[in-house]
Amino acid sequence: MKAINVHDAKTRFSKLLLEVEERGSRFVICRHGQPVADLVPHQAVNRLQPDKKLGTLRIKYDPVEELAPGDWPAEAR
What we know:
With about 80 residues, this protein is of the alpha+beta class. Helix content is about 20%, strand content about 20%. It has helices at about 5-10, 15-25; strands at about 1-5, 25-30, 35-40. It starts with a strand and ends in a 38-residue tail after the last strand.
């Protein structure tokens, strides 16, 4: 990543965006030599893909197992 100070980033913002868009460049915007923000290419999230954490869940019951009379709520018996 290239470091750039706030004043230069503000002055050249359109050119920086163009470079990020066309070349995929990445910039660290600094104030007084300290990193403040990153200017990086956008990465779209595919919301149709299931979360990877869902693959780690394990259900420990048999969904087709019959319920015993005591498993039903009293109002449903």
